[in-house]
Amino acid sequence: MREKQVVVHLPQGLHARPATLFVKTATAFSSEIGLVKGDKSANAKSIIGVMSLAVANGETVKLTADGSDEEEALDKLAAFLEQGAE
Amino acid sequence: MGTVRVHGIGASAGIAIARAQVWKKQDQKISQEVRSPEEELARFKTASELALSGLATLYEETRLRLGQKEADIFQAHMMLLQDPELIGQIEVLLAAGNINAEAAVQQATGELATLFSSLEDEYMRERAADIRDVGQRLLSCLQEAVWGNLQGTAREEKGTSLDAVIVVAHDLSPSDTAQLDTGLIKGFATQIGGGTSHSAVMARALGIPAVVGLGQALEQVEDGDLIVLDGTAGLLCLRPDEEELSSYEQKRADWLREKKRQARWAELPTVTQDGHRVELGANIGHPDECRAVQQVGGEGIGLFRSEFLFMNRASMPDEEEQFQAYRQVAQDMNGKPVVIRTLDIGGDKELPYMNLQSELNPFLGYRAIRLCLDREELFLTQLRAILRASHYGSVKLMYPMIATLEEWRAANRLLAEAKETLARAGIPFDPAIEVGLMIEVPAAALASELFARDADFLSIGTNDLIQYTLACDRMNEQVSGLYQPFHPAILRLIRQVIDAAHRYGRRVSMCGEMASDPLAIPLLLGMGLDGFSMSASSVLAARELINHLSFEEMKELAEAALKLEGQEQVKALLLERTRVQINA
Known about the structure:
The complex is a heterodimer of chains A (86) and B (584). Chain A has 86 residues and is of the alpha+beta class. Chain A has a single domain, classed as HPr-like (Histidine-containing Protein, Chain: A). Chain A has three helices and four strands; from the N terminus they run E-H-E-E-H-E-H. Chain A has helices at residues 16-27, 47-52, 70-83, and strands at residues 2-7, 32-37, 40-43, 60-66. Chain A has a four-stranded antiparallel sheet. The radius of gyration of chain A is 11 Å and the shape is globular. In chain B, helix 19 crosses helix 21. The longest helix of chain B is centred in the first third of the chain and has 29 residues, at 37-65. Residues 145-162 of chain B have low confidence and may be disordered. Chain B folds into three domains: 4-25 and 156-254, Glucose Oxidase, domain 1 (3-Layer(bba) Sandwich), CATH 3.50.30.10; 37-142, Enzyme I, Chain A, domain 2 (Orthogonal Bundle), CATH 1.10.274; 275-549, Alpha-Beta Barrel (TIM Barrel), CATH 3.20.20.60. Chain B is globular and about 85 Å long. Chain B contains 22 helices and 16 strands. Chains A and B meet through helix 1 and helix 2 of A and helix 2, helix 3, helix 4 and helix 5 of B. Chain A: This is Phosphocarrier protein HPr. Chain A: Residues 1-86 form the HPr domain.
């Protein structure tokens, strides 16, 4: 089980297209991955969960991962949140 | 059961009389039987697979029929359907027992949709509708409905005959209308929505009446009820009595006769009795309206408002998406001119992704070209998309709300930059694309000569020009009487703009509501206006009127009108003269 704090740098925040891409990226890993904002957390593989956190640009979130590819998952998703989709 | 009248917003003109087909997602025959948790879970899994394959088919069909953009919604639904959070909630409910798959689906999707619709963000609220949509689809698959052949099933399920109907619905989403057999629809009536909602645009494209925003009262309508729909007055009459019915039948016959009588003008040019030709185009707000424009023989698109691309969404449309929309219009119009107006938006519109502050005076504030020149990336993206579309038809570019020559030049500098970017990338566009501007700020009207020097064309936007010139908000009932299209100041401004344009050999058209006013047309014609652009539904009447007028006589009329001292005198003169003209 690992976790990582990330400051989100996505001009539109984490919804619409970025949220879809984020979930697709997360789904590619076998680890269980969570996204935590304040006292709310969501399954990072759930578009409903991710969108309901309504993460805005500039906010700090925590990524958690538990599984065989947890390290790679954290790196990739953190990079996505910090640098944007494409 | 007496007659009920419901008032809404007339979104597409005309009168329809037909039985109602209430477009309700089926929720009436939900099974109450509860089997073991294992069996219910298995039922849910089967329904989920069925729904998924139905969506895949719908996605593919829609992509082929309507295009990628319209199909994307179904891909989003597929993602929701496979969402671990949603599935997890349903599984937890089922495992607890004493509940069937139908109820679990309803509860889980209902709770999630409620959660989403309570969020501030408009984009999230729209997702609530998607979650409900997915829930309905699962329910319907649990009922073993076949989603493969939607057009057929939709009709059979309701047991309605193949007669034409008026579709009555809460709202119609693109995914609903994709399932309708438009050949059998005589009109649309919806609870919510405004003039640019999907059903309104579609009704105008089909040339059938539509009334939207009818509210809760619409829930009284039942399948098979006789309905009169008056899209001109924005009225729905439920179960009319005999007297009303016959009066509306008369009105409908008149409307149809008038429509038919006017139809012959669709094929004819717009030319006065003495051979003076003007261009009669249409204003559109959505690419799908091109069909209606072609049907009335519109000679071009005098104003394509690009705002629709930016509304009701969470993020900026990218260059590709904009390009597809502009290209569709350019191609649909088959070489006829299409004037695309760059983004005309400001603090009065809520666009979450733009972070616009609400202003005390949005119409005098940060909007239209002012905003675009400040946000160069946004503007350059739109300019590139429009330029790329220019390769596929006769596209012209128009800037809104220009007040100073500096703005005009700054916009053109960015246009040059956009052209250079495309040229470097080897992307084709029309290098000689015509560029013009809206004359809607009084400063630009008074100084129109400065703009006429290097603009390819001018277009007078009367709605704003009148508001700004008379310092009157037409939506404010207490001062709306000051909104005077025939005020001598307005007539002089228009005259000045036309003269300035002609001095430099430029064409000048008008795309405000005044351009379709039968009282104003003779006057504008006489002042030398070269082009009129209006909603497609006004084109035939305008063409008929112009073809009955004499240009020479209208010149004299305009001279006389410009000497008068107030709107009332001008209107009286126009009423008098045009009546004589038409009866002659």
